[in-house]
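The pair is quoted verbatim underneath.

:::
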Amino acid sequence: LLASPGGRIVLVGSEVSRCPMPFTGPYTVSKCGLDAFADVLRRELMFAGVRVSVVQPGAIRTALLAAAARSMTAYRQGSSFAAQLQRALPILAREREKGMDPSRVARVVTRALLSRSARPFIRVGNNAPRAALGLLPRGVVDLAIRCFM
């Protein structure tokens, strides 16, 4: 099916790959790796007429955010980063509260699969401050995160 004209592959990444945040290491590495894989796949399969896109959603109301909050709470005690983890917990709570319904992401994925001109990276429901930070030089972002946390 992919080899037929107009084949599509749509992967689900994350907005974190554009602006990694503290204490999200394994998740961020996996999503950055997925973005790189999508680039390679897109550049290889373009010769076969197959298009590749990555949907990069912001926070989604799933069990992932609740599990992350539980992990941060558990690891906070006795951690060298207790103060920073404590500062991050309300952020996770807000993301859980304001996170989009998974069906919104599913609709974007479906549109990308059916589109003849879907972009390589499709953002949906991204966090505006995080998106803005992703445009700044890394040293500036590091300073902002240090001041906030």
Observations:
- The CA atoms of residues 57 and 124 lie 5 Å apart.
- The two ends are 49 Å apart (CA to CA).
- The mean pLDDT is 91.
- Helices lie at 25-45, 63-76, 82-98, 102-114, 128-133, 138-148.
